[in-house]
Design brief:
The structure holds two protein chains of two kinds. By secondary structure, chain A is an all-beta fold. Chain A has no helices and eleven strands. Helix content of chain A is 0%, strand content 54%. The chains are: A mainly beta, B mainly beta.
Chain lengths: 111, 115
């Protein structure tokens, strides 16, 4: 059974606008969360992470929000750029244990 | 620093044949992981090596899959005999420390197509 869910397979956003990618998880033991970005024919690359002691982590145009009570996290990209077009994977883990990945959301940023 | 290298990038085989995928991790990374993504599905954990030892192989689908990491350097993942449902992209990743706060560096993946 999937423990990390990304219910939107795809998302299209205009360049310059905000992209919001969502992720839900079921395991309350998860305390570390990551977002990976994947371009075609490449492996996933690490983007940003957050631990359960925080509810927000920011890195440039990328911000991850964590709502532990709702078991929900989101990735905000502001402003979105065409080079952000990729598949974004959410991942979660209990510390010291394996990462569980979602199915990915394909983001298209329209110039 | 060279990244994680996987070979072959794409393999097409008939059902019942054998395929061996290879992964060269980043030098000095004791931890090596295999993952698989079936089309449209999640990236699923297969197993984790610490040096040459299997730390966790709970994600291996069945005994048709055999992973090795002799000498604690490169790793191979053999599928024998291959079935249609084995088709997907097999990713290898490595890290200096296991899991937790240390992120994984992934290779580009080996796409396996079983006909």
């Amino acid at each position: 059974d999937q423990q990390v869910k990304q219910n939107s397979p795809s998302l299209s956003v205009q360049e310059g606008r905000i992209s919001i990618l969502n992720c839900d998880y079921t395991n309350s033991m998860f305390d570390y969360f990551l977002w990976y970005k994947k371009y075609p024919a490449e492996g996933p690359t690490f983007l940003i992470s957050i631990s359960s002691i925080k509810d927000k982590n920011e890195d440039g145009r990328f911000t991850v929000f964590l709502n532990k009570s709702a078991k929900h996290l989101s990735l905000h990209i502001v402003p979105s750029q065409p080079g952000d077009s990729a598949v974004y994977f959410c991942a979660a883990s209990p510390t010291g244990n394996q990462f569980y990945f979602g199915t990915g959301t394909s983001l298209t940023v329209i110039p | 620093e060279a990244g994680v290298t996987q070979f072959p990038s794409h393999s097409v085989i008939e059902k019942g044949q054998t395929v061996t995928l290879r992964c060269d991790p980043i030098s000095g990374h004791d931890n090596l992981y295999w993952y698989r993504r079936v089309m449209g599905k999640e990236i699923k954990f297969l197993l984790h090596f610490v040096k040459e030892s299997k730390q966790d192989e709970s994600g291996m689908p069945n005994n048709r899959f055999l992973a090795e990491r002799t000498g604690g350097t490169y790793s191979t993942l053999k599928v024998q005999p291959a079935e249609l449902e084995d088709s997907g992209v097999y990713f290898c990743a490595s890290s200096r420390q296991p899991w937790g706060a240390n992120v994984l560096t992934f290779g580009a993946g080996s796409r396996l197509t079983v006909l």
